């Protein structure tokens, strides 16, 4: 069966089911909230997109096989969690699937056939033998008269003097001043030619001048808009920087695995934590938090981010989190879905002596910030 047909059927049935559900809801046969349905069943879009990628792979080949499996796996995990079928996380899925991915990748490298290097054709010219034809060769077109040839009574060129339109009076004189122009008296064809060239040249110059003027106005407008935007940014005090530019900041990074910071008692300093695949755990319950504001940046690609804060009234915390796909639970707030951003401050944050500014960004995974103690 054609892959494009299956794709159309799949998405068509999905849209038909949505329409029937809305119709039954309006008729009173079903009672549900549209926001709750979107919150629970949004992973179905990931499942359908993954199946579509697999059908594309089956139809015309390509490198979309892994992308389809990843979308299906992520959609399956989130749909199962929303329906309370299991309590898996994306980090658990990655840890379980990573060994199989490595094994399959190694087997594929071993079993991959050797590519045949086809010889490149030479770049030399090739002669082609055209088949003979019985059609006669058409005669050559007549040549134009030489404009530099002098026209007289004994000339073989027959020219008729035609009325000449007066040249356009413009400010630009491309052919020089009147003193620099040659005397064209006696040449009936010279004056129309010069007038046409002058008109064409003036039109082109006016066109380019208008384009240059529009370009200059556009550049000035963009420069003015960029200057105003920069001014607003400089006056904005709640701007979020996703990386700590403090030269004394500590840096922790990892590729695959888990990162755990805060096993024992330690002194908290500005910190940057970046991780590719795996969970990131930051325990601040045993940290000696200095006075003032301490900024911590955590960025993760795939995996959960968990931060434990001390339940101390002297410590205030400002959490700024961003997640592309996953649940975000910060203190007493919790949201789930796609494209989730959250900015939460503890009570009396500005009045506390010890402040922690936590900036967390993740692509796929959950973000959990809780108080312990």
From TrEMBL:
InterPro entries for this protein: LiaF-like_C, LiaF_C, LiaF_TM
State the source organism's domain of life: Bacteria
Q: Per the record, where are the segments of Pro residues compositional bias?
A: 133-145
Membrane-crossing ranges are 5-24, 30-51, 63-81, 93-111
What's a Pfam family in this record?
LiaF-TM
Assigned keywords, A-Z: Membrane, Transmembrane, Transmembrane helix
Describe the location of the LiaF transmembrane domain by residue ranges.
Answer: 10-116
User: Domain Cell wall-active antibiotics response LiaF-like C-terminal: where?
Assistant: 255-369
The annotated region (Disordered) lies at: 115-191
Tell me where the signal peptide lies: none
Task: Give the protein name, as stated in the record.
Answer: Lia operon protein LiaF
